[in-house]
């Protein structure tokens, strides 16, 4: 449902279903000055500090006068247009404006404001920041009227300090708002303090990240050592007799485990000067073609170092796999159990006049 009303020559349109208001054809809101708006303004001031807050409001007022200037420009003279804008401002609750003087040749204007919302908020908050947003609006309007790059509205009277009105003197300025902000940041103790706090926060964050990285590296090192221990436990190489090593295999043998197993076994053969190696498959139920090939390479590599390999504990399924891939089992020394393999190796080393392979 849409309701319409006219106040001060302006049409107000209420769309109660959507919860919208339009004033003079433009979207608008109604807001409580002494509670909602005061809370918003004071929150912003606490975040950025009074000086930066005032500059920000001045800039916001200056940059938001496009519609005001378009309205003024509809009238034959600036004075007539500004007088009409004064009426609109009063209708919208912006207080009562008064153009005290205007000197186009000197490019100087003086404007007074009674009962403005910025001053009312400051009374509620018991502060005196000045009406910077309204000052910025006047600066933007007279900047266009004087045809200059920028104007500044200097507030010379303050309702919050006991004056009857807020008064602004508007003149061209060589310093832009951005210049003023840069100078303020260069000398603002609060800004330097903020920077110091920010740098300290960054320093702490860097230290925390370094500590976290160090802890992570320590954990990775621990994991690596644990993996080495697990691999050693998964593939133990035991010297069961002088010159006789045994390698009991359990579980699945993949490419990574086979490579690790070969490296550790060959190193142990060299260190122990072993002449025999028993590879026991009792704990392996099944092998695939790839695993069988890994075992054959392991046997060949060990024998190239002079250690004869004995295979024990082959299950029927494993034997079938080896036959299916063309492994000539007659070329291998294959015994039923680890005990048989150990007995065989001991007997070989004890035969008169026969030295163990690799010795």
Automatic annotation (TrEMBL):
InterPro entries: Bact_StressResp_Reg, NO_sig/Golgi_transp_ligand-bd, STAS_dom, STAS_dom_sf. Residues 195-223 form a coiled coil. It comes from Nannocystis pusilla. Keywords: Coiled coil. CDD domains: STAS_RsbR_RsbS_like. The keyword Nucleotide-binding does not apply. It comes from the Bacteria. This is STAS domain-containing protein. Residues 234-345 form the STAS domain. Pfam families: STAS (PF01740). The keyword Cytoplasm does not apply.
